[in-house]
Design brief:
The complex is a heterodimer of chains A (about 130) and B (about 90).
Chain A: H1 12-38, H2 43-64, H3 67-94, H4 115-129
Helix pairs in contact in A: 1-2, 1-4, 2-3, 3-4
Chain B: H1 2-25, H2 33-55, H3 61-83
Helix pairs in contact in B: 1-2, 2-3
Classes of the chains: A mainly alpha (about 130), B mainly alpha (about 90).
Chain lengths: ~130, ~90
């Protein structure tokens, strides 16, 4: 019998997955439009938006899934996301030259109410909280 | 209760999306029509998906899932307002 109490997909985890799902959708759709319609204007931020979208999709799948494989995927995606938002956030504060257009992670996700900064912290807490003991 | 409210909201969103889509496809020029249409789809789809996803959650967190969907829908509608600049 699996232990449902430790599943990442129930309780608060379900809310987390919903938020991740929304960000997966919005970041991917936004990057898709940007890359398809005006890629030449700012390739770096658009590709970065696309990368962020993929990371959010992987985190959503990892958190919604069951078993050690899904958990590893979630860990990887959430840590990647935290490193990404901190790196891009810091770079965009000091140098706007490389980032003429906003990404999800610009200035620690200011354009998205700083949710991109809080989300990986909640994700890490939740993965730790539900880890097998 | 949750679902009746969400259902009423979705019904209004469908009406809004239908009116907007008819206008866009019958020649109203928007500077970012692709983005507008994506947001239009999102504004209609997110709440039903969130409601469905929440029904599988027996605890009080189910309501929070619907709330996340409602906030996302509100943001989409707010973005629609900003993108609706006919003739610009």
């Amino acid at each position: 019998m699996p232990e449902p109490a430790r599943a990442t997909s129930s309780g608060p985890g379900r809310v987390l997955i919903a938020v991740y799902g929304v960000f997966a959708l919005s970041a991917t759709a936004r990057a898709g439009v940007q890359i398809a319609t005006r890629f030449g204007e700012a390739p770096v931020p658009y590709l970065l938006s696309g990368l962020a979208g993929v990371v959010y999709i992987l985190a959503t799948i990892g958190l919604a899934g069951h078993g050690p494989g899904a958990r590893r995927l979630a860990w990887f995606a959430v840590v990647f996301e935290l490193v990404g938002v901190l790196t891009v956030g810091t770079v965009t504060i000091f140098d706007t030259g490389d980032f003429p257009d906003d990404t999800v992670w610009s200035v620690y996700g200011r354009g998205y109410g700083f949710v991109p900064l809080v989300l990986p912290l909640l994700g890490l807490w939740w993965l730790r909280h539900t880890r097998p003991r | 209760m949750d679902e009746a409210g969400a259902g009423a909201a979705v019904a209004l969103l469908v009406v809004q999306a239908a009116i907007a889509a008819v206008q866009v496809f019958s020649g109203t020029a928007l500077p970012e029509s692709t983005t507008f249409l994506i947001y239009l789809v999102v504004s209609v789809c997110v709440l039903p998906i969130a409601t469905q996803f929440a029904t599988a959650e027996p605890t009080r967190w189910g309501g929070a899932v619907v709330a996340v969907g409602a906030i996302a829908t509100a943001v989409a509608v707010w973005r629609l307002q900003g993108l609706w600049v006919p003739g610009a």
